[in-house]
Design a protein that fits this description.
267 residues; alpha+beta; Four Helix Bundle (Hemerythrin (Met), subunit A); Nonspecific Lipid-transfer Protein, Chain A; 2 domains; two-stranded antiparallel sheet; 10 helices
Length: 267
């Protein structure tokens, strides 16, 4: 395994550990508290992470079986919750927490054996190994944010946000395509600052339009956990603002995101 890929796998494990520590401070009775994702309680986010860490491990370890299950997968009825989520609501919260711990630990162990040059199957085009693991880290961080936003628990921002920021930039075109829109190719400079103070620069350094601010604000926008106007991002240019309005770093159909004013600015 290459050093860079090994570092991403280690960061996935660290992100899991950070959320696990935060959840230690959340009494199980708060697991029924609804989050800012409509219809999703705290336990639903933990179940979602467990389910898709299990599915990701299957994609790594048994591609043929994953493909067979993906082909047989039936879309949920409109407005219906996924079956795994419904089943998890019938289980004690401690059991769901244990499922998540086990699923992530097994995923990390499987990821440590991946050839970094390999492309992995998923629900859509195959993904490069680095992008595949980065997507799992992003999911852990963003669903974890939904949890700590309403249930408490301490989770300090870390420089692991660099991976999510990079994914957010790389999925700019996807944010348009998933809405049936033509991608906007206007060069945009993205200048961010990690929690440690380290700068990140993406895009065209000479771009006339720009996005500047904290990496955590950018990551909250591209994962649709904050409306861009509720962050401290400095957005210069109509095309840059359009991107932040549409930004979506996760796979699937367009998400509803958050509405302006749901959170105190910069929180």
């Amino acid at each position: 395994m290459s050093d860079s890929f090994h570092a991403i796998v280690a960061d996935l494990a660290a992100e899991h550990a950070a959320l696990a520590q935060a959840l230690e401070g959340v009494p199980f009775e708060r697991w029924e508290k609804e989050t800012h994702a409509p219809g999703w309680a705290v336990r639903d986010h933990v179940a979602h992470l467990a389910q898709f860490d299990d599915v990701a491990r299957l994609a790594i370890e048994d591609e043929e079986r994953f493909q067979a299950q993906a082909r047989a997968r039936r879309p949920e009825a409109p407005g219906a919750d996924p079956a795994y989520m419904v089943e998890a609501r019938l289980k004690p919260a401690a059991e769901v927490l244990g499922w998540w711990h086990e699923a992530n630990e097994k995923l990390v162990a499987a990821a440590q054996r991946i050839d970094p040059a390999r492309r992995l199957p998923w629900f859509g085009p195959p993904m490069a190994a680095t992008s595949f693991i980065t997507a799992r880290l992003m999911e852990c961080w963003s669903h974890g944010l939904d949890v700590v936003d309403v249930a408490g628990g301490e989770r300090e921002p870390s420089d692991r946000l660099r991976h999510i920021a990079h994914l957010g930039v790389r999925t700019r075109n996807f944010s348009y395509v998933t809405r049936g829109l033509e991608p906007n190719a206007t060069p945009i400079k993205v200048e961010l600052v990690l929690p440690s103070g380290e700068p990140l620069l993406f895009g065209d350094a000479q771009g006339k339009q720009s996005i500047r601010g904290r990496a955590i604000d950018f990551c909250m926008v591209v994962t649709q956990r904050r409306h861009y106007l509720d962050t401290g991002l400095e957005i210069d240019g109509a095309d840059a603002e359009e991107w932040m309005r549409l930004a979506q770093a996760f796979a699937g159909p367009p998400g509803a995101g958050r509405t302006e004013g749901q959170f105190a600015k910069g929180s």
